[in-house]
Amino acid sequence: MTETIVLEKGRLRVPDCPIIPFIEGDGIGKDIWQNAQAVFDAAVEKAFSGQKKVAWLEVLAGKKSFDQTGNWLPDETLDIIQKHLVAIKGPLETPVGGGIRSLNVALRQELDLYACVRPVRYFKGIDSPLKHPEKTDIIIFRENTEDIYAGIEWQAGSADVKKIIQFLQADMGVKKIRFPESSSIGIKPISVEGSERLIRAAIEYALENNLNKVTLVHKGNIQKFTEGGFRQWGYELAQREYAKELETGQLEISDIIADNFLQQILLKPEKFDVVALTNLNGDYASDALAAQVGGIGISPGANINYLTGHAIFEATHGTAPDIAGQDKANPCSVLLSGCMLFDYIGWHQVASMITKAIENNFANGWFTADLAGEKGLQAVSTSQFTQNMIDFIQKS
Ligand code: NAI
């Protein structure tokens, strides 16, 4: 019988046939989702000898949804994800034109998915700009709800910005706005709660996965109360809630200034296990880290609220309209986000099987066109890539 995943006493209760909603995605979404789903099903079947099975439930969003319902993000989609907690999505076309929010942002905000989680690791066979890309194995926890992404800004020259500058100068004694007549102003909120819940999630992840180093990345040398607050609240939280783990060495907490972090991930990436960052720093670091293992096109991601259990796993690339419908797209981003999903629901053996099958493809020189071209190899199609994985899983 198919059932809903629920959160009980802070832990997910996952039935044998959980209902998991999926958003196919636009453009290459169809190409990659259908093939990825076949891999997921084969791995679940193999791992549990048919005793468990995912009941995939399609929900609509994006262009496909607009074409069918006239709505880019129907309430029903949000309601179903709200109810079933865990979902997976392909890339969504961002509607062009005023008044429509980015669908990805809307999903994150509606479900308050405060942690953006990005594992960054190297797959042998992928081209990387580093000499030793295998030394990079880092889990990024990026705060997803605060910082400049709150979108609180006033345009230079507007009546509103004049009010703000007047208030800052007259009431707050601010004297350092270099060009007050022509400045735009933006506000960066960083809270205790927002920082703590993200850093707690990073620490919990580290402890659960026997990774002992958690590094707080910040720009607190310049922004003492926002970025510096993130750092300070992180240390205080660790001392208050994880004193025992700190004492036994099970957890080591440290911090690093963001610019030095971007240097160190190139020079000594092995120094980091789990990193917690504010939203903007996390944005930069996610792409920089993915690029240094050559994985920008295959990186998975998840947006999670560990308190409610809600989690959406996603391919991080776009809809690639230039290759849509041609059976050429690289399915690894959605496949690896599926691995994150299976790990999240505790089906670790499924995640491990899928990861090994990807490694096996690369070891055999089976790459999709985006990666094969660089090596002068004959590319395999999306469906061939995933069929090779299924064959490997069934034989293993
Ligand atoms: P894009 O990621 O779709 O494409 C950039 C380049 O990378 C293209 O040459 C494309 O062919 C290639 N590419 C992307 N994914 C690939 C894959 N899996 N396999 C092989 N090649 C791949 O970025 P672009 O062109 O900026 O955006 C296209 C649309 O996607 C826009 O509507 C954008 O808003 C949306 N988008 C959605 C995202 C999401 O839903 N998470 C993220 C980024 C963009």
Would you spell out the secondary-structure blueprint of this structure?
Elements: E1 6-8, E2 11-13, E3 19-23, H1 29-48, E4 55-58, H2 62-69, H3 75-84, E5 86-89, H4 103-110, E6 115-121, E7 137-143, E8 152-154, H5 159-170, E9 185-187, H6 192-208, E10 213-218, H7 227-241, H8 243-248, E11 252-257, H9 258-267, E12 274-277, H10 279-292, E13 300-304, E14 311-315, H11 332-344, H12 348-363, H13 369-375, H14 382-395
Parallel strand pairs: 3-4, 3-5, 5-14, 7-12, 10-11, 10-12
Antiparallel strand pairs: 1-2, 6-7, 6-13, 8-9, 13-14
Bound molecules: 1,4-dihydronicotinamide adenine dinucleotide.
Modified residues (N6-acetyllysine): 131
Cofactor: Mn(2+); Mg(2+)
Catalytic activity: D-threo-isocitrate + NADP(+) = 2-oxoglutarate + CO2 + NADPH
